[in-house]
Amino acid sequence: MMTAAAVALAFAISGAGASAPAAGGGSTRGVTDDSIKVGGLLQNAFFMGADVGAEARFKIENDKGGVFGRQIDFIGVRDDGGDNAQDAAEGRALVQEDEVFAVVPVITPALSAGDFFLQNKTPFFGWGIAAGFCDNPAGFGFSGCLTPPDPKVAGGAWGEMIKQALGGSARGKTAAVISEDNDSGEVGHKVIAASAKAAGFRVVYSKNPVPPPPAAAPDPTPFANDILTSNRGEAPDVVFVVTSFSNVTLLQNKLLELGYDGVLTNAVGYDPRIASQFVGSSVYIQFNAYESVDEGNTNMQEIIDNIRAVDADIPLTQPLLSGYLSADIFVKALKATGKNLTAERFLATANKMKYSYKDVTSPIKYPRAHSLGGQCGTLVESDGANYTIRVPYKCYKPVKITG
Prior knowledge:
Elements: H1 4-14, E1 35-42, H2 44-47, H3 50-63, E2 71-79, H4 84-96, E3 102-107, H5 114-119, E4 124-126, E5 139-141, E6 153-154, H6 157-165, E7 174-180, H7 183-198, E8 202-210, H8 221-228, E9 238-242, H9 245-257, E10 263-266, E11 282-285, H10 298-308, H11 318-337, H12 343-350, E12 354-357, E13 361-365, E14 376-382, E15 387-395, E16 399-400
Parallel strand pairs: 1-2, 1-3, 3-4, 4-5, 7-8, 7-9, 9-10, 10-11
Antiparallel strand pairs: 6-16, 11-14, 12-13, 14-15
Helix pairs in contact: 3-10, 3-11, 6-7, 8-9, 11-12
């Protein structure tokens, strides 16, 4: 991955990545006098519904007449299957075959297409869970960059929230962090371990040995046994499971089967369709919870209403909200750029923008957000049928990664 400085220098010297001509003879690919073409890139098996969230946000703008008179032509999403080679191929197809101006939403841990988007001056917006969002002047996470290749700081929210759930003190408490054997997992366990340490936990295990999907489901027994003996032969007080959904389920079930009675926490088990599988688990989410509407969160209620106008029955999930927010930050960048829309003007504007959605997601500012993620979150818990807010939405200071 090229650094931001290296990319800027390359553009200045060579003009590399000039915009391709648009169909119909325009000078900017995907842009006409009355439309802006966009399409998304997802690992659909795990982030299904993000397209509906994006569609809902685009509908609001289109119903008002578009952005400076241009309708947002959302052509749907391509599925990369969580595979790096397929991600690269589908990313190329969005640019070369579909001729999109921008790729929205982008939600996948296998973002191999990021450099190609940069080389072709194709902005992409999404949930910054992949390293391809980091140090990339074409990539914009509404959450910033969450998995930088060589992180120096980490978000402090998750560790602090688990501490609050334990009564406000981590004194004498131990923690284990486990993640997957890929780039996101390599960064993820370090980031969450730093968050736990900063909150006062003694981290006794921090590794990323778990094979990620689409690999065959691993036998979780060796990983569970390692965790259960990591605290000088005993189990830790808290286990942070920083993996995709299928591996969270495998690991947590195995730990419970082997008698673990400490705190289990993950970042994916917030979904009304699977609440029964996470009874008693604490789930950290990087947004406010949908349930915050019960406490008067009018901004979250507005988002829900907009989504229901597109699909009245869709479950309220993290991917759904992430798709909506991906589209929202893109629309705000469009408005900030103005009517004279070119890839160059758009990227220059977006790389200086601030973004926030009050009481819903973390405020961020570019270009710093190319290397740092948002610092806010919520801790929820399932009773088997519904979720309750265990620790309310709050923002925390970033923490340094040491060791």
